[in-house]
Amino acid sequence: MGDPVTVWGALVGRLPTAYAVSARHALTVTLAAAAGFYLFRYGLGRPVAATYALFAAVALGGLSRIPGTGRGRSVTVLRLLPVCWVLVTTGTCLSVRTWSAVAGMLVVGFALAFAAVGGPRPAGAAPGLQLLYILPSFPPYDLASLGDRLTGTTTGVVVLAAADALLCAGPGPTTYRELAARGALAARRCATLLAAPPYALTGTDIEAAQRAGQALRAVTVPEAERPAGPGVRDRALTHTGLATRALLSRLAQLPSAPGRDPGPDVAAVLRAVARLATATAGCLRSGPPPTAQVKQLIVARARLSALSAGPPGTAGVFDPPDGAAPAFPPAVLRRHAALLEIADAALAMGTAADLAVRGRHAAVEVPLGRFWYASRRTPALWWHRLRGHAGRRSVFFQNAVRIALALTAVRLVAGLDTLPHGFWAMLATLTITRTTVNQTWSTVRLALAGTLAGALLTAGILLAVGSDTAVYAAVLPVWMLFGFTVGPVKGVGWAQALFTVLVALVFAQLAPPTWRLAEVRLLDVLVGSAIGAVFGVLAWPRGAHDELRYAAAELLRRAAEIVVATSASVAGPDGTAAAVRTGVPGHRSLQRAVILAESAYAQFLSEPTPFQLSRRRSELPDLDWQATLMAGHHTLWGSDRLLEPPLTALNPAAATSAGALGERVAGRMLLVSAALDPGDDTPASVPVVSPGAAALAAFRAEPPGAPRRYYATASWLASLMTDLARIAHTGPVPAAGKETTGPR
Q1: Helix axes of 516-538 and 492-507: crossing angle, nearest 10 degrees
Q2: Residues of 72-98 as b/e, b for ≥16 C-beta within 10 angstroms?
Q3: Helix (H, G, I), strand (E, B) or coil at 49
Q4: I need a surface site. Which of 260, 281, 603, 655 has the fewest CB within 10 A?
Q5: What are the helix (H) ranges across 677-730?
Q6: Which of these, 444, 480, 384, 445, lies nearest to 118 by C-alpha position?
């Protein structure tokens, strides 16, 4: 007949895909929950340990949504075991009084929900961990049973981890490191082709580069593989992906010179980029660090920069003598500026990749401006992440406050009214409360309908079977397997109905059952749903939509300040930039605005039906929010690059043009921000529109005697204008210039 796993796999293979995936996971939860429950309930006669073994497996296996493969989830679950011990112990100790249990629920509920800032795994585990605190926080206060509670919890968690590792050990998705390595190899191919005749990319090559860059976007990467944690390696891997996307975009849009030798220094930069891209891919695949290749590209980049600045004896590194023509025509200077940006992106990619693989022990010399996190320890980086989201504009903070207040209110009502099985009410609140009013009301209706159906079925079962526990013991694992397979696929109504019957089957084996158990279950779900709905209405009822609008507008306002300050510094009489160095308040404010906008965007994507009032929806067209986020990244990166020493002044014509372009881009940013988040006195007619052809043509101007530094500035500002055009543009975006300075 074959082994059981093979037989089960064959059966699962005949199911539709959605049910097959759910069934595999349901099998692990059922085996873990049933094994612990039957061992302690009937084998050892310890009902308390049996209860905690079952609910530990259900909490982390059924209620939690930890992303990843079976083995990846098992590792996460085992790492959470000490947290489970702390929660069970704390809940047991604080259940002595209602006020202490309520205070503990407020603190623990907020802390567990706010831990979602650490990435998809903490966020996925949070609901299950909430349940492991909720269960012991209710009477009876029995400190003597703490040993059984911890024993049962440990058994449930360990058996769940083992079952997940053994039964769901299929191949995992492609890792983000591998995707970044493939992107680096795509960049190597592009750089190699551009360094040799005909010095251009074909349409097929450009499409391949675009596909490699798209593969690194967060929305296309499985949740478990997204580098979203606050640690050095996750931050560096995120930086690797951004830099790789930037490099691919810049290579694809490099001004071509078909049939014309671009010169040895240009070819040297492109060949150095290709070597570094190859070494970066090897590093990401656990190879040696790209130390030598980084140094080679730095040398090649310096030579091209010196060549582009002009012959020796000029007035400055970037500026030819007054009245003299630049050493190269404008088309060549534009190409040189684009090549230097390509080199900058490649250096960032190689450095970030080494950090992502080796952490603080990276071999490549790390510039601490862009890679500020490289020397920080993990606790400091966690604190930085938590502090960045500790405010009412963070959707993580909003969600944590919403769920903590709702759970606290339910615990208070349950304690004051001695609500029987009050933790069911809290479980209902935990599973029903959503981030928007529409979602919450819809979920409540489905949950109540499902619970009513489940309660009626439960009452019939209890009346028919009576106190024959053998029947309940035989039916429980079959019902668990069915419920955990069908519930996640069919939705919240089915899940509540099936879970109502499941908990009745469990408690019928722990105490003499009556049909009133179904009535209690329905009452608890009604109370929990009502409280969850109230807090869904009162606490940020529109979910991430309004916060995304505000965060995107705030990002553009902060970016406009940096654009004005940077362009003014570039165009200034002495070329200095004392007011806009990395780390000064302007940059820190923009960095925080980018963080908040990204978190709001992530929450916006996670809401299956984002709430939009019809009035608000009619005010704005469909927007490309990703372009707004990219504009923030481009502003930071371009400002840092343009203000690197040595800094010298532009000639008057170039300085005037650079300043005017900066003001034009900043003005456009402010107009778009006003349309995204209009104030009380903002004209209702302000639209989010793409800039006209005349506005874009200004970025292709060639002031007399303009040096390469001017074209680097114009290239950066043009890319920002292209981002702004893309925000509200649904078709092909008109290019403001040949080069772009950030990932697409």
Answers
A1: 140
A2: bbbbbbbebbebbbebbbbbbbbbeeb
A3: helix
A4: 260
A5: 693-697, 708-727
A6: 384
What token pair was written down for 683?
A: 């004209």
How far apart, in whole angstroms, are the C-alpha atoms of residue 434 and residue 541? 9
Residues 557 and 354 sit within 8 Å (Cβ to Cβ) = no
Q: Which two tokens stand for residue 145?
A: 């049973």
Sole residue written with tokens 């988040």: 677
Q: Which residues contact 509 (CB under 8 A, 6 or more apart)?
A: 41, 469, 472, 473, 476
- Which class for 453: exposed (0-12), middle (13-18), buried (19 or more C-beta within 10 A)? middle
Cis peptide leading into 222, omega within 30 of 0? no
Encoded tokens for 224: 């478990």
- Asked whether 291 and 363 are in contact (CB, 8 A), the reply is yes
Alpha carbon of residue 551 to chain centroid:
15
The model's pLDDT over 246-277, given as tens digits with 9 standing for 90+, comes to: 899 889 888 766 556 677 888 899 999 999 99
The alpha-carbon radius of gyration of the chain (Å, integer) is 30
Question: Do 165 and 74 touch, CB atoms closer than 8 A?
Answer: yes
pLDDT band of 95, cuts 50, 70, 90? confident
3-state secondary structure of 542: strand
Give CA torsion, residues 305, 307, 308, 312, to 10 deg: 110
Question: Would you state the structure tokens that stand for residue 459, as one six-digit string?
Answer: 């009452």
- For residue 625, give every residue at least 6 positions away whose Cβ sits within 8 Å of its Cβ, in sequence order, or none: 548, 552, 601, 604, 727
Contact 163, 135 (CB under 8 A): no
CA distance 270 to 247: 12
Look at phi and psi of residue 466 and say left if phi exceeds 0, alpha if psi is from -120 to 50, else beta. Answer: left
Nearest-angstrom CA–CA distance, 494 and 198: 62
pTM of the model: 0.77
* Residue partners of 21: CB distance under 8 A and separation at least 6: none
Which among 341, 346, 339 is positioned nearest to 262, based on CA atoms? 339
Nearest alpha carbon to residue 61 among 86, 30, 102: 30
pLDDT tens profile 531-572: 766 666 665 545 556 778 888 889 999 999 999 988 888 887
> What's the distance, CA 455 to chain centroid?
39
Question: CB under 8 Å, gap of 24 or more: what pairs does 205-208 form?
Answer: 205/252, 206/252
Residue the block writes with tokens 């899940």: 495
φ, ψ at 451 (rounded to 5°): -65, -40
Token look-up 């000029």 returns 314
As a whole number of angstroms, the distance between CA 733 and CA 736 comes to 9
Q: Label residues 118-136 b or e (16+ Cβ within 10 Å = b).
A: bbbbbbbbbbbbbbbbbbb
Tokens of residue 566, six digits: 């940077």
Burial bucket for residue 287 (CB in 10 Å: 0-12, 13-18, 19+): middle
Token duo for residue 346: 């490649």
